[in-house]
């Protein structure tokens, strides 16, 4: 991390990307981030399973999108680099796959640049998810993404950080309108469990970040608009297309939903295609 980046980071305010980093065992976080992470670790024991279930589903989703022939991806709210990032999964299928990571945390930019210094087909930009025109016009996006060819749009565990008045479905539709047929959209999202665990977790996120909305199945599916949602539809991340990928934990493959923890039942995902 460069000094110029460090001076732009407000260490008094928590970052979604850095809290996720902490929950996944990373070291790129500050005390304010760890305070939120420790609430989930200590006060809601077992809740870290949400982050791990989401990550494993993302790895599988990118693999499936790549198998379907998509060779370029935009990962919105990408967070800090960890094991099996989107570009690594996609490039196992096609070494020429191109990926743009988008996040509003400058630390993500610094670490992403270091990770991708020798990869001309992958980049990271600092931008706000809620300003799609800025992202679309960014020189790095224009360099890597050909919007005349199918694009994989990845919204992994990010849209639940937008309130209803920020119109997340309209945001997804904005991007869908700019990609051609054959493009695919992946969304994972906190799913309301109508229980005490959901209430406490949602309350903590809203209190810490001033935003956040856990949605039910119908509300999550509505984010896809009129896209064709591919089989098996909206499913718990742990159970979604459970064929294991390289190095993936297979202990939950084929389990009954009743065997999952309450936390594993609080995040769902789906993949859709533009016809």
What is the gist of this entry?
With 275 residues, the chain is of the alpha/beta class. It contains 11 helices and 8 strands.
Describe what this molecule looks like in 3D.
The chain has 275 residues and is α/β, with parallel strands linked by helices. The chain has a single domain, classed as Vaccinia Virus protein VP39 (Rossmann fold). Helix content is 38%, strand content 14%. The longest helix is centred in the first third of the chain and has 19 residues. It holds the Pfam family Methyltransf_19. This is S-adenosyl methyltransferase. One of its GO terms (molecular function) is methyltransferase activity.
How many domains make up the coordinates? 1
What's the overall geometry?
globular
Radius of gyration: 18 Å
Number of strands: 8
CA-CA gap between termini: 42 Å
Please give a handful of descriptors for the protein shown.
275 residues, alpha/beta, Rossmann fold, 11 helices, globular
């Amino acid at each position: 991390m460069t000094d110029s980046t460090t001076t732009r980071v407000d260490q008094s305010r928590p970052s979604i990307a850095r809290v996720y980093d902490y929950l996944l065992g990373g070291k790129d976080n500050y005390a304010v981030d760890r305070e939120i992470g420790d609430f989930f670790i200590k006060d809601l024991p077992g809740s870290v399973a949400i982050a791990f279930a989401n990550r494993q589903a993302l790895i599988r989703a990118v693999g499936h999108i790549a198998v379907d022939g998509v060779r370029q991806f935009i990962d919105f709210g990408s967070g800090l680099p960890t094991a099996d990032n989107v570009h690594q999964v996609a490039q196992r299928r096609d070494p020429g796959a191109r990926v743009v990571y988008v996040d509003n945390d400058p630390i993500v930019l610094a670490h992403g640049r270091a990770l991708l210094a020798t990869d001309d087909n992958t980049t990271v930009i600092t931008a706000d998810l809620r300003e799609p025109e800025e992202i679309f016009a960014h020189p790095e996006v224009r360099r890597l993404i050909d919007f005349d060819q199918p694009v994989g749009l990845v919204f992994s565990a990010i849209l639940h950080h937008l309130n209803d008045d920020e119109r997340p479905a309209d945001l997804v539709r904005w991007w869908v309108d700019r990609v051609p047929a054959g493009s695919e959209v992946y969304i994972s999202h906190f799913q309301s469990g109508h229980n005490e665990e959901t209430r406490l977790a949602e309350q903590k996120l809203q209190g810490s970040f001033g935003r956040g909305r856990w949605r039910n199945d119908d509300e999550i599916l509505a984010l896809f608009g009129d896209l064709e949602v591919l089989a098996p539809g909206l499913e718990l991340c742990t159970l979604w297309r459970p064929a294991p990928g390289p190095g993936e934990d297979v202990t939950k493959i084929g389990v009954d939903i009743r065997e999952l923890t309450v936390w594993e039942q609080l995040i769902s995902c789906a993949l859709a295609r533009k016809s």
